[in-house]
Design a protein that fits this description.
- Chain B: It comes from Pyxidicoccus parkwayensis.
- The complex is a heterodimer of chains A (258) and B (302).
- Helix content of chain A is 25%, strand content 22%.
- Chain A is built from 8 helices and 16 strands.
- The two termini of chain A are 25 Å apart.
- Chain B is built from 12 helices and 13 strands.
- Chain B is α/β, with parallel strands linked by helices and 302 residues long.
- Classes of the chains: A alpha/beta (258), B alpha/beta (302).
- The interface between A and B is large, with 58 and 55 residues.
Chain lengths: 258, 302
């Protein structure tokens, strides 16, 4: 039986993991988060970027986990790593020193400048929902040379203005990140379940790609600010049957994140 | 000097009402046994400090032991929320917990300053965003060499640091491997250090592999032998994380009634860690026990 007949089309998570993996180059030093970013990194390593260098904020450097980590501090990250260091070294010697090429973040809210909120919904002193907080996200946003934001799109999450800016993007309160003195390059793309947003020269997110079957109008409907659309909207590349098999059978067989 | 004692003795001698306290570990080496003993001893008004307060800190909050939380990421790692924390920090809460919030790098820098004997620590961070806006302890300084503006955070000196490790001798020379979190910084920053170990070994074992020693006995006041003291967290080389528990915890902790019932059964209802372990489902510990993966070792000869 041909493999195609066995495989159903990609789910939203599979699209996002695949599209995120396309952003990674062989040899990139990546600060990996748990969930889809981890899966995207594993996929890139299995396909076009075998030399991807994965660093986890828990201390694993050059990690090669045999199982998908269930948390950022999974013991499988340690086994077979090139180096395991304390967190002071992770944040000082690797991140602040400028050695991280790619960072991944997601969150509860994102705005058009790529500012991300993972702290509270509502007023900080009197929140409607208390979220986990920054963790290492703020410093990753400040220091990574390229930042990829991976988030499902809805009016609730893609907002006119974040309730709290945990991790700064291209522009905070009207000030550009260069003016503010942030060393990293800021967000390069927002990878969503509907398409991909790029950032223009002013630092504003612009719809640049849609998945097959999705129209720019649908994406605009799912966005909480008046989303600008690029002159030419590309078709986002989707995983083929062999990639889907790889994701489903080898990389996340227990469907932890897919 | 032999500093070995029971968890009960170590906590009673070190933690007072109103103490500031760090039970360190980054998903790994988190000493639940210490947190449970603190609850049993009825300690109150604690300032609980850790980058990643997780289940055991949430249990301390639910049990009424905590007045203030100093943290940078609070959640059930890989699973969900801390429900006692949320109940005490969201708009509807009648009795609000005091929160002092950083990012990981910021809180770690407070411990670094404390561990290095400096009044503050500079870091390149918080140039944009709201964390520094809501936390007045985060300030800035101008570098006298480059003119660059840097964020600063003040030194932190917890009254007590509790450090779990794989093995220690009776003097508290503690060796750990795997993810190290900020155990070393927390220990050196603190006024008092309790070392908790899976194994107590002779000083010869420590001296045979000195690079492995994370915390030297000279800063340690108490040593507790508490195998499985980290369950449901994990200890590299000893046991895996009990992930099923973390998943189940989401349901147990969502309602105050089931949460309190759990605390009654597994914390108040037992005398010590041995009692807790006996209440776990049979066969669980064997299931979690680590498969061996021994490294070759190094030659310290000269």
């Amino acid at each position: 039986m041909a493999i195609e007949t066995l495989v159903s089309g990609p789910t939203a998570s599979e699209r996002m993991a695949y599209r995120a993996a396309q952003e990674l180059r062989d040899g990139d030093v990546v600060f990996v988060g748990i969930g889809l970013p981890n899966l995207a990194c594993n996929l890139a390593r299995e396909t076009h970027a075998p030399g991807l260098f994965m660093i986890y904020e828990s201390g694993a450097v050059g990690a090669m986990p045999e199982r998908l980590p269930v948390s950022i501090g999974d013991p499988s990250l340690v086994t077979n790593s090139l180096s395991v260091v304390g967190q002071a070294d992770i944040f000082q010697c690797l991140l602040q020193r400028g050695l991280i090429e790619v960072g991944f973040l997601g969150g509860a809210q994102v705005d058009r400048w790529g500012n991300i909120n993972t702290t509270v919904i509502g007023d900080y002193a009197n929140p409607k929902v208390r979220l986990p907080g920054s963790g290492g996200a703020c410093e990753i946003a400040v220091h990574a040379r390229r930042l990829l934001i991976v988030m499902r799109m809805s009016r609730r999450t893609f907002v006119e203005s974040c309730d709290f800016i945990t991790s700064p993007g291209h522009r905070v309160n009207g000030k550009r990140r260069e003016e503010l003195g942030m060393p990293g390059g800021g967000p390069t793309r927002i990878i969503t379940d509907l398409g991909v947003l790029d950032f223009d020269a002013t630092g504003e997110a612009v719809l640049a790609e849609v998945y097959p079957g999705v129209t720019p109008e649908q994406v605009k409907q799912a966005c909480g600010w008046p989303l600008r659309v690029a002159e030419t909207v590309r078709k986002a590349e989707e995983p083929d049957a062999s990639v889907l098999c790889l994701l489903r059978e080898k990389l996340d067989p227990k469907r932890l994140y897919l | 000097m032999n500093k070995l004692c029971s968890m009960k003795e170590a906590i009673a001698a070190s933690v007072k009402h109103g103490s500031s306290l760090v039970i360190d570990g980054f998903t790994h080496l988190i000493c639940f046994a210490a947190g449970h003993e603190i609850i049993r001893q009825g300690l109150r008004d604690l300032t609980a400090i850790r980058l990643t307060p997780d289940l055991v800190y949430d249990q301390l909050i639910e049990a009424g032991a905590v007045r203030k939380l100093v943290f940078s990421w609070a959640g059930n790692p890989g699973v969900g929320s801390l429900h006692a924390l949320r109940r005490r920090s969201e708009a509807s809460s009648p009795e609000r917990l005091e929160l002092e919030e950083y990012s990981h790098f910021g809180l770690l820098s407070r411990l670094l300053a404390g561990s290095a004997g400096l009044p503050f620590w500079p870091l390149s961070n918080y140039q944009g965003g709201d964390i520094a806006r809501v936390n007045p302890s985060i300030k800035t300084v101008r570098c006298p060499y480059t003119g660059q503006e840097l964020a600063t955070v003040p030194a932190l000196h917890p009254d007590v640091a509790i450090v779990h490790c794989q093995r220690a001798d009776k003097e508290g020379n503690a060796q750990a491997w795997g993810l190290l979190g900020s155990q070393k910084e927390a220990a050196f920053a603190a006024r008092k250090v309790i070392v908790v170990a899976e194994e107590i070994v002779s000083t010869e074992v420590i001296r045979a592999d000195p690079n492995r020693t994370l915390v030297p006995g000279i800063i340690v006041s108490h040593v507790v032998h508490e195998p499985w003291g980290c369950h449901p967290s994990f200890v590299q080389g000893f046991h895996d994380r009990d992930n099923d528990f973390y998943v189940k915890w989401e349901d147990i902790s969502r309602q105050p009634e089931t949460y309190r019932a759990w605390l009654e059964e597994f914390v108040h209802g037992v005398k010590d860690r041995q009692g807790y372990l006996k209440r776990l489902e049979s066969g669980l510990l064997d299931k979690l026990r680590a498969k061996a993966r021994v490294c070759e070792g190094v030659d310290y000869g000269y």
